Amino acid sequence: MGDPIPTQRELMAQEYDAIHNRLFVIQILLVAALLAVYQFSGASAMLSNGLSARFGEQLWYVTNAAYTAITVFGFAACMFLLSYYSSHVLERHYELSSETFGEWFGDFVKSLLIDIALATLLFSVIYALLRWMPNWWWLFASVFYILFAIVLSTLLPLVIMPLFHKFEPLEEGNLTTAVLQMMDEAGIQVEGVYKWGMDARTNAANAAFSGVGRTKRIVLSDTLLTGYSHEEILAILAHEVGHYKNHDTARLMLTSSVLALLGFYISHLVLTQLSGALGFAHIFDIGAAPLFMFSLFIFSLVSMPFANMHSRRREFAADAYAIQKTGSADALVSAFEKLAEQNLSNKEPAAWVEFLLHSHPSIARRIERARER
Length: 373
Ligand SMILES: [Zn+2]
Hints:
This protein is mainly α. The chain folds into two domains: 8-166 and 243-372, no CATH class; 167-236, Zincin-like (2-Layer Sandwich).
């Protein structure tokens, strides 16, 4: 299919992809090493004991919250160079971003503060559950985790995303009318169509439904609005409608619930087996949190290929819906070509890389399937 000789841009995309895969491996090794050092050097126990001595046994939840905040900050500090290289240096080198260091750093600090707040809330609740119901905490922690994810996805477009990007209602016109008509036909209530201001910062293009329920809105990046035909934009949105019609959010929620339940249960087994051996009197001692995080981390790595396999199937199903709805694969295929070109995606990654790491099928496979329909 297509030109057998890769273009300059395609070669660059392959190179960019290879660097990302290497960075991914480095990141895994670094996280595992940091967790091991934190746990086995006694630094984690020292921090939790120090905080506990300062706040007293009565205020255990303050100790837990402070421990989490300090730990997340410490990890981000240790990973700083890697974050800087992968999300700033590399992006600028490949001309995917035109952000200055100051702009990048501002966003980095903002997202770190959000991470610290969210992790502190999550771990405070999980560690309270560990204390109150040492045998059944994993069950309640899974329920809490899913509720937390639902609330977060509701708040994301309203509170968090505007901190990083500018959103403004898309002006009335043919496109807005066509988008709203498509949503109406699909029976999807949306709060509005928005322009997602990116071009000042990044050259990547994107379109999405964001939010759930009453906060659901359509966001189209300005890079998409300037570079794509209405047919292409509508084909991309029809794919999103496909996800909605196929109940993919509910499916995702179900898979996440099962994975959360399994992950927390395995952590429960690990903590009950090993926290004593590491010198902790109770499984709810936050000093053993690196062990807890390590088991969740390993579980997420092992389960990732399965979650990705499920996700890739849902992507193909949404593509099929879009093609059936728009009556032709042409617009979707040309949108894929443009997106790959613009976002510098490797159209044909190695099969094993796609199997292990990618939540979306490769552009080459999506085009091939679309052409078969
Ligand atoms: Zn999709």
